[in-house]
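quick one, 149 residues, struct below
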Amino acid sequence: MNSRFLMTMQVEVVGPQKIGAVPDGTRTTVPIASGYFEGPRLRGKVLPGGADWTLLRGDGVLELDLRVTLETDDGALIHMTSFGLRYGSPEVIAAIARGQSVDPSTYYFRTTPRFETSHPKYAFLNRLVAVSSGDRRASGPIYTIDEIL
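---
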């Protein structure tokens, strides 16, 4: 399978909403305050109002369910959802939880972004499959997103 770089996206998170123990694990909603994205065919900002709905499972895997609206520099709106998984050794996950920078090669953080837009210039996004690798920073994650060709 071949891929091509689509964009890098960084989001800034604020005040996690710790819902707590639910039947399938521990639920937290992490609001998205802002962010930006940039790639060879699109760039712009992440609008506030999205969130990452996370579920920490009993096996230590964090399920990620991100939903955001992107606004390109030329005013197009793009709805993006992304489901993924993050896990690593207890020591690495504890360091991330403390806000420390951790080498992303020491843990698994992958998502599958999907896009929807009505703007003709960006309609190609409606027809692609994408994967991303993540890097969790104290202010929020950075996603490197590739489209699968």
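The radius of gyration is 15 Å.
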